[in-house]
Amino acid sequence: MNFAEVAPRAYKLMIALNTYTTEHVDHTLLELVKLRASVLNGCAFCVDMHTEDALKAGENPQRLFAVSVWRESRFFSDTERVALELTDAVTRPGEHGVPDDLWERASKAFAEKELADLLALIISINGLNRLGVTLDSATERHLHS
After folding, report:
1. Where are the transmembrane segments (predicted)?
2. 78 alpha-carbon distance from chain centroid
3. What's the whole-model pTM score?
4. What are the pLDDT digits (tens) for 65-75?
5. Cα separation of 58 and 78, whole Å?
6. Is the Cβ–Cβ distance between 31 and 1 less than 8 Å?
């Protein structure tokens, strides 16, 4: 199925949210979060795309390799670590959602508007990942073009 053709309004809304986050979240953080969510969701197309985008933007390859093991890595700032932890919690929520202590740390690390934009980013990439994984990677080219 070509989702963009079958449900063009829904597709345009998903892309609009993605565009919004691209304009409102720091680019380095944006690519790290997109990469982390894509790894967790098993979206190979997106892992490749976001790795390539980050490299083109000058990101250190070691940091990209370490996204999959960010908790054990020394390559990320405290703010990036909170964003990656929030990405994990929103992407794979436990029975009770995002832990309160994590939300408190995220609220301290980011201004309220920054946190809202970060949450929109995590939701956006998860939606695109899940759409792509559901419809198969051959269709994913249509999702991101």
Report:
1. none
2. 18
3. 0.91
4. 999 999 999 99
5. 20
6. no
- Work out the number of other CB atoms within 10 angstroms of the CB of residue 65: 12
pLDDT value at 85 more than 50:
yes
Q: 87-125 pLDDT, tens per residue?
A: 999 999 988 899 999 999 999 999 999 999 999 999 999
pLDDT higher at 138 or 41: 41
- HEC string for the chain: CCHHHHCHHHHHHHHHHHHHHHHHCCHHHHHHHHHHHHHHHCCHHHHHHHHHHHHHCCCCHHHHHHHHHHHHCCCCCHHHHHHHHHHHHHHCCECCECCHHHHHHHHHHCCHHHHHHHHHHHHHHHHHHHHHHHHCHHHHHHHCC
In this model, does residue 140 exceed pLDDT 80?
Answer: no
Q: Are 14 and 127 in contact (CB under 8 A)?
A: yes
